[in-house]
Design a protein that fits this description.
alpha/beta, Rossmann fold, 6-stranded mixed beta sheet, 6 helices
């Protein structure tokens, strides 16, 4: 039996990441509302933000490059290829995250401050991660749409201990005790 290229790539990535090789299961869990995706924003060259960064003013922030905008569009196409045409999309209020979320074209994007970066204030990380964990534990999947959270490396690392690449998908579930369980990963390249 021939394995579809996408499944082979996902299986290889999961194996390299030390995650069980169940690519189809991760996408199926997402479609069924048993899992969610944490997505690190698409390619935005640099680290952190310039001094004086202000939410709501993209000119003061590190933003997506042309390659990052194209990557965000490809990520949206990947979701559609996997049968997900609409999703409940929440995003950090940083422009690079909001732009990634919008360019995926999977539905309206809802800003969620719990997804905002704490890179510049690491002392806030533990409290913010715990608040996000509680929000996820209480999240209701009644919309019938898969849940996608567009955020930053520090937020994903705080929740999962994984250091994702730009545009990487981390599939996860919440256990009954509020712990995050990673069930898969997929790199989307730059």
């Amino acid at each position: 039996m021939m394995i579809p290229r996408r499944s082979f790539l996902m299986t290889s990535l999961f194996t390299l990441a030390g995650v069980p090789a169940q690519a189809g299961d991760a996408w199926e869990a997402l479609r069924a509302g048993r899992a969610f995706v944490l997505l690190r924003h698409a390619l935005a060259p640099g680290t952190g933000d310039p001094a004086g960064m202000q939410l709501g003013d993209c000119s003061t922030q590190r933003n997506l490059s042309d390659e990052g905008r194209a990557q965000a569009s490809r990520i949206g196409a990947l979701f559609r290829d996997e049968g997900i045409k609409r999703a409940a999309v929440y995003s950090s209020e940083w422009c690079r995250c909001l732009d990634t979320a919008r360019l995926m074209e999977l539905g309206p994007v809802s800003p969620q401050p719990l997804l905002n970066s704490f890179f510049g204030k690491p002392e806030n990380g533990r409290e913010q991660t715990e608040a996000l964990r509680q929000w996820l534990s209480a999240y209701s999947y009644t919309s019938g749409r898969p849940l996608i959270l567009v955020t930053h490396q520090v937020n994903i690392t705080g929740l999962t201990s994984i250091v994702p690449r730009s545009g990487e998908l981390v599939f996860a579930t919440m256990s009954g005790v509020g712990e995050t369980d990673v069930i898969g990963r997929q790199s989307t390249g730059a």
